[in-house]
Design brief:
single chain, 86 residues, mainly beta, 7 strands, 7% helix, globular
Length: 86
């Protein structure tokens, strides 16, 4: 079953060539574990991207990703749509 969450971004910062994206979602944190993948989509015109979960702590999920092309501005802020398949 696919569940979709709108998760507010709490941290979005560069880490050298990588970025750290932290989102807040109490419901998703109950299911998610480090090493699992989430499908992240920001904006209506972008495709979902599978991003590995780096850490789950409290009500926040942290993902680390590398930008290999120009990132859409909306990907770094706002409320990304997170798809979770159980």
């Amino acid at each position: 079953m696919k569940e979709v969450y709108l998760c507010p971004v709490t941290v979005s910062e560069p880490l050298g060539d990588f970025y750290r994206l932290t989102v807040h979602s109490r419901e998703l944190c109950r299911l998610a574990k480090a090493g699992q993948f989430l499908h992240v989509r920001c904006g209506e015109k972008t495709l979902r991207r599978p991003i590995s979960i780096h850490d789950v702590e409290g009500d926040e999920i942290t993902m680390i990703y590398e930008v290999r092309a120009t990132a859409p501005v909306g990907f770094l802020s706002g409320s990304p749509e997170i798809s979770w398949t159980c």
